[in-house]
Amino acid sequence: MSAENLIYTLLSLPLLASALVLLFRNQPNLRDGQAVLLGIISAGAAFQLYLLPTGASLTLLELAPGLTLSFTPEPLGKLFALVAGTLWPLATLYTIGYMRGAKEKNHTRFLFFYAVAIHATMGIALSGNLLTLFVFYEMLTFSTYPLVTHKGDEAALKAGRVYLGILVASSIVFLLFGVIGVWAMAGTLDFVSGGILAGKIDPFYVPALLALFAFGIGKAALMPLHRWLPAAMVAPTPVSALLHAVAVVKAGVFTVLKVGVYIFGIDFLKETGGSEWLVWVASFSILAASIVAMTKTNLKARLAYSTVSQLGYIVMGMALATPFAASGAALHIAAHGAGKITLFFCAGAIYVAHKRTDIQDMNGLGRTMPITYTAFALAALSIIGVPPLAGAWSKFMLMGGALDNGYLLVLGVLMVSSLLNLVYLGEIVIRGFFANPTRKLKGVQEAPLTMLLPLSMTALLSLALFFAIDLFIIDFGG
Amino acid sequence: MIVMTDQLLGQWNYYLVIILMMIGFYGVIARGNMVKKIVGLNIFQTSVFMLYISMGKVAEGSAPILTGDPTTVYSNPLPHVLILTAIVVGVSTTAVGYALIIRIQESFGTIEDDDIIAQLDDEEETA
Amino acid sequence: MMQHLPILQVLLPLLASPFAALLRGRDVAWGLTFVTTGLAFLISIALFFQQRAIGETMIYELGNWAAPLGIVYVIDAASALVLPVISGIGFIATLAARQLVAAEIDARDHGLFYAAWLLTIAGMMGQVTTGDAFNIFVFLEISSLSAYALVAMGAGRDRRALPAAFNYLILGTVGATFYVIGLGLLYMLTGTLNLADLAERLPHVEETRAAFTAMAFIALGLFLKMALFPLHFWLVPAYAHAPSAVTALMASTATKVSVYVLIRLIFGVFGVEFPGLADAVGLLVLTLGIAGAFVGTLAAIVETDLKKLFAQSSIAQLGYMAIGIGAMSATGLAAAFLHLFNHALMKGALFLAIGMIAAQAGRATMGTIQGAGKQIPITMTAILFGGLALIGVPLTAGFISKLYLIRALLEQNFWLLAGLTFISSALALAYVWKIIEAAWLQPRPNGAPVLRETASQYIPAWIMVVATLGFGIYATPLVEAAFAAAHVFIPSVAGAN
Amino acid sequence: MQDDVVIRVVAKVMIPAVMLFALYVQFHGDYGPGGGFQAGVIFASAFVLNAVVFGLNKGRHVWPARYNLMGICGGVLIYGLTGVGGMVLGENFLNFNVLSSDPIAGQHLGILLVEFGVGLTVAAVMVMLFFTFAGRTAHLRLLSKSDAHERKISASKKRRK
Predict the structure, then answer these.
(1) Which residues contact residue A275 at a Cβ distance below 8 angstroms, ignoring those fewer than 6 apart?
(2) End-to-end distance of chain C based on CA atoms, in angstroms?
(3) Which candidate from D33, D129, D143 shows the least CB-CB separation from B110?
(4) Closest Cβ–Cβ partner in D33, D136, D145 for B102
(5) At CB < 8 Å, which residues of chain D contact B?
(6) Of A21, A359, A366, C324, which is the most buried if we count CB atoms within 10 A?
C-alpha cells in the first residue's frame, strides 16, 4: 500500500472499530473479536508505514485559509504510530479479559471510547502541523474522559473533573496560546525538519514560548501539572494502561518532542539556550516523582508516579537540545511504552486474581502467579534500565546527550533516579517472590488467558526491542 | 467678557436641553416607582426632541412652506420630520411601558421596584 | 425581481406582520411566519452570494431617490454576512416556535405573538440593511418595541417576565435615546444622516469636541443595546423569563445586531483614524470586553437556571466580540464578525434545546436535566455540542472564532490580554461540564417527571448543531467572508490574510 | 359626566366638527401643514371625547374593539402596498411616479394613499390605547408606596399563620 493509503487505514481502522462496537453491541463476542482483529491489522499497517521512506503527505481538508488538517508521517511520528498501533490490539485483548474478569459494566461504551481514543492517538502521531495535532490532542482528552469516569461513582466523577480540568484548561490556556503565538509569528504551523521559528522570533522570548508548550501539554505530566495522572487511577486498569503506555501520556511527551524538534528545532534551541530551564524542571520532575512513588503503597498509584518520573526523561531528552538525546527520548517513548503497559497489565491481572490493590497485601503472590510476576520483573528491569532490556538503550542515549552538552549534573540525576526506580519497583518483585504471605492465598490463581497473553507478549517486546534497536533509532542530526 | 456672555446666552437652548436631560435621567435612575420612571424617560426623550427642533431653526427663517419667493429663508424641516418620527416612537414606548405597568400591578399588586424584588426574593426562598 | 432583494429582505417580514396579527388561527399565523422567514432566509443567502460574486457594494434607492437626499439600502460584504445570520436564526427559531409557542403562550395571542416576532426580525434586518443613520434608529426601535412585547408574553407562565421586560424597556430606550443624541450632534456638524456621506464629511470636523461627544454618545447607547459589561443587567432576566422561542431568537440575534451597528458607526463613519477613537473607545471596549468575559463566565458557573446560565455566558461571549472590536485591526474585526456568526449558531442550538426542555418541564434547571442524558439523549447531545463549541473545542465553530480573536490580539502585541482571554475561555469549561455531568453521569432522581423528545422537537436545535460543526470543520468560506466584511471598514493591508 | 347637559350638547356639536377637521388635515396634508399623523390623532380624539362624555360602553358601541386591529393592520398594509405598487410597475419600492400616467399625479396619488394609511393606523392606535387603559380602571388601583407596604406586611402575616 502507498503511504497515503496507510495513513487513511491507520486513521480509519479505529473509527471503524468503534462503529462496529456500536453495531454489535448485543453480540459480545463479535463486538470484542472485531476490535482485536482490526487492531492487529492496524499494527501491521503501522509497521509497513514505519518501513516506508518519509515524504508522503496528505491534506484532509482546509479548516480556514492556511490552516489545514493534514498528515505527514515523519520518523518520530511513524515510531509513535507503531507503538500505539502495536499496543492497541494487545490492550484491547487485555481489556476484554479484564472487563469480563472484573465484571465491569457498560462494555460497549468502554470499547467504543477506547477505539476513539486510539483514533485520536493515531491522528496525533501522524499530524502534519500543530493545528492537526491540537485538534486530535483535544479529541483524545474528551474521548478518554468517559473511560476515566467509567465507574460513575462520586470518586470517579471527582477524578474525572481533575483529569478534564487540568488537561483542557492547560491545553486551552497555554497550548493553544502557544499554537496561535507560533502561527502569528511564523505564519505557518507545519512541522518542518529543523524548526520553523529560527529567525522569526526574538531569542529572548524562546524560553517563554517553550514554557507555554511544556506546561500547555498537560498530558506530558510535567510537575506541577501531573495531578491528573494519579487521580485517573480510579479508572479500570485497562484505562490506566491506555493512559500510561499507549495513548495519553505518550501523546503528551510525543507532542513535546515534536514541538521541540520540528517547531523550535534542536539547533535553534541549542543556539538560544531557550530550553536550559526545562532541563532542570524535568530533573526536578524526575526526582520528585520518584520520591513520591516510594511513599505510595497502592500499586497503581506507585506506577502512576513512576510514569510521571519517566515522562520527565523524555521531556529532558528534548530539553537537552542535542540530536543524540532527542533520539534517546524518542526511543524511550517506545521502551517505556512496552515496559509500562506490562506493569499495568500485571497490576490488572493481580487485581482480577486477588482483588487487592495494596502492595503490602501482595506478599508471596509471585509464587502463585509466576507468569505475571516474571513479566512484571522483566518490565521493571527495563524501566530501571538494566540490559538486555529496551530501557537500557534510551537511558544510555539520554546520558550521552547530557554529556554532549556538558550537563554533568544531569548525569547524576539520571543515576539517582535509576537507583530510586530500583527501590520502588524492586520492592514489589521482591515481596512477590520472597516474602511470606501475610494472609492465605487460597483460591488465587493466574488471571485468564486473555490477560496473560498480552502481558507476556509486551514483556517479551521489551526484550526484543533491546536487540532490534537499530530499527528504532531515529537520527535527528540532519 | 462679551464673547463669553454671548457664548453662554447664545446657546441657551443647549443648556435647557442638558438640564431637562439630566432631570429626566435622574428620574429614570433614582425613582423606584415605575410610573415615575416612565415620566422620567419621557422628559429625557423630550430633551432630545428639543435638541433636534432647536437645531433646525434658522435665524429669521420662516416655516418651510414653499412661497415661490427665492429670497425667503426657511428653517430646516428635516430635523422636525425626524423628530416627528422620534415622538411617535416615544409615544409607542410610553404606551408599551404603561401596558407593562398595568400588567405588573395586576400580578404583583405594586409598581414599586423594591417591593417587586422583595416579592420575587420571597418566591425564590420558598421555591 | 433580483434588484429588489435588498428591500424585500426587510419588507417581507414587515408586511407579513399585520397579516399575522389579523389571522386568528394559530397554525395559519405560524404558517405565514414560517413561509415569510423562510423566504427571507433564501433572499439573504441570495444576497450574500450575489454580493460575493459582484465584490462591491450594492445600493438600493428607496423611491429612486439618490443617496444624500433619499434613503438607501446598502448591501456590502459586512451586511451580506450578518443578514443570513438573522434570517437563518429567525427561520430555525420559527420552525421550533410551533411547539414552543403552543406550549407556552395562550392560543388567543398567537396571531399577535407572530406579528411581534416578524416585526422584531424585520427591525433587525432593517438595521443591518439601511444606509441611513436615523433609519437605523427607527428600525432599532421597531425591533426593540416588539421585543419588549415578546419578552412580556412570557408572563403567562412566569410573571417575572413583566419586570424583566419593563427594565429592558427602560434601559433599551435610554440606549436608543443616547444614540439619537449622538446622531443629532453629528447632523449638526455635517448636515447629513447618510452613513457614507457622514464618513465623507466627518474628517472636516473631526477635531471638534462635538464630534467626539457624538461618538461617545453613540458608542454608549450601543454598548447598552449590545449588553456590554457593565451595562448588561437587563439582559439576563429578559432572556431568562421570556418565552423559550423568544429567548432562542433574541439571544442569537438581538445583541449581535447592535454589535454590527456599533462596528458600522464606529469604523464605518468615524473610522480608525478618528482622533481619540483608538484610545478612548478602543481601550474602553477592550477593557470592558475582557471584564465582561470574566464576569459573565463566573456568573454562569454559579447559576443553576439553564436559561440564566447561558444568558450569562452570552455576556461573556459578547465580551469576546468587544475584544475583537477593541483590537482596532482588520483581523480583530474579522474575529468579531466570525464570533458574531458562530456564537449565533451555538447559542441558537443551546437555547432551542433548552427551550424544548423548559416547555415540557416548566423550567430548565440543573435539577430538571439531572440524569436526562438517558431519557432525551438526542436533545442533550445537542446541548453537549453547543457547550463544547462555547468552550472553543477544535472542530467546532467556536474554535475558529477564538483562533482569529487571539491572532488579532497577538498581532497587536496584546500578550497579557490574549492570556486573559484564554483563561476566561477555559473557565467556560466549568459551567459546560456542570451540565454535562448532571445530564450524563448522574442518575435521574426518583419521581422526576419523564422527559420526552420527538423529531420535531430536536430537529431545529440539531440544524444549528450541524451548522456549528460544519463551520468548525470547513470554515474557509466563512473566514474569507468575515475578512471581506472587515475590509469594508479597515482597508486590507498587504500580507494579512 | 353623562348627566351634564352642557357637556353632552357641546360634545354632540363638537364631535362631527372634530372629525371633519381631521379629514381636512388628512387630505390637505400634501399641500400645507398636516398629514396622517396629525389627522389620525384628531380623528381619534373625536372617539375619545365620545367615550369620555357618554361612557366607555357607548364608546365601545361606536368603535368596537375588533376595528382596532383591522385599522392598525389595514393602515400599515395600505402604506406598504402602495410602495409595493411602484415595485410591481417596474420601479423601486416607494416610487410613486409610476402609479399614474403622469409622474406628478402619480406622486399625489401615492402620498395621498400613504398618508391615508398612516392616518388610519394612528387613529386606530390612539383609540385602542385609550380603550385599553381606560378599560382597565376597574382592576387598577394606583397605590402609594405606604399602601403597598401595608399590603406586604399583611401578606407576610398571613404567611406566618
Answers:
(1) A206, A207, A210, A260, A264, A269, A318, A319, A320, A321
(2) 35
(3) D143
(4) D136
(5) 32-33, 37, 129, 132-133, 136, 139-143, 145, 148-149, 151-152
(6) C324
Tell whether C24 lies on the interface with D, counting CB pairs under 8 A.
Answer: no
Percent of chain B as helix, strand, coil, to the nearest 5: 75, 5, 20
pLDDT score of D138 more than 50 = no
A123: which residues sit within 8 A by CB, 6+ positions away?
Answer: A11, A71, A132, A133, A135, A136, A139
Nearest to C63 among D74, D80, D92 (CB): D92
Question: How far D6 CA sits from the closest chain B CA (Å)?
Answer: 32
Over residues B68-125, the pLDDT tens digits come to 777 777 777 788 888 888 888 998 899 999 888 888 888 888 888 888 888 888 877 7
The chains found to touch D (3+ Cβ pairs under 8 angstroms) are B, C
In contact, C321 and C398? CB cutoff 8 Å: no
Task: Return mean pLDDT, chain A.
Answer: 84
| Coil, helix or strand at residue C395 | coil
Contact B50, B20 (CB under 8 A): yes
C307 touches chain A (CB under 8 A): no
Contact A334, A370 (CB under 8 A): no
C492: left (phi over 0), alpha (psi -120 to 50) or beta: beta
Q: Would you give the DSSP letter of residue A53?
A: P
β-partners of residue A62 are: A68
pLDDT in tens, A80-109: 888 888 888 888 888 888 877 777 777 888
Q: Domain residue spans in chain C?
A: 276-497
DSSP state of A446: P
Contact of C358 with C339, CB cutoff 8 Å? no
Number of neighbours of residue D43 by Cβ within 10 angstroms: 25
At residue A304's C-alpha, the angle toward residues A299 and A309, to 5°, is 125
pLDDT in tens, B2-28: 666 777 777 788 888 889 999 999 999
Write out the three cell numbers for A236: 479500570
**Cα-atom radius of gyration of chain D, to the nearest Å?**
22
Q: Are B77 and B56 in contact (CB under 8 A)?
A: yes
Identity of the amino acid at D78? I
Tell whether omega for the bond before A388 is within 30 degrees of 0, i.e. cis.
Answer: yes
Backbone angles phi, psi at A190, to 5 degrees: -65, 145
- What's at A251, amino acid-wise? A
Using an 8 Å Cβ cutoff, are C409 and C323 in contact? yes
What are the b/e assignments for D3-29, b being 16+ CB within 10 Å? Answer: eeeebeeebeebbeebeeebeebbbeb
Read off the C-alpha cell for D11. 360634545
CA atoms within 13 A on the CB side of C123: 25
Contacts 24+ apart (CB under 8 A), C272-279: C272/C328, C272/C489, C272/C490, C274/C202, C274/C206, C274/C211, C274/C215, C275/C206, C275/C207, C275/C212, C276/C212, C276/C215, C277/C215, C277/C328, C278/C328
Q: Note the ipTM here.
A: 0.83
- Output the CA angle A346-A348-A352, nearest 5 degrees: 115
In this prediction, residue C496 carries a pLDDT of 42
For residue range D91-116, what is the model confidence (pLDDT) as tens digits? 788 788 887 788 888 888 888 888 88
Per-residue pLDDT reduced to its tens digit, C256-296: 999 999 999 888 888 777 777 777 778 888 999 999 999 99
Report the DSSP pairing between strands C72-75 and A67-71: unpaired
The CA-atom distances, in angstroms, between D109 and each of B66, C62, D78, D116 are 20, 17, 12, 10
Q: Tell me the C-alpha distance between C78 and D138, whole Å.
A: 52
Coil, helix or strand at residue A8: helix
Q: Is C422 on the interface with A (CB under 8 A)?
A: yes
- At residue C446, what are phi and psi to the nearest 5 degrees? -65, 140
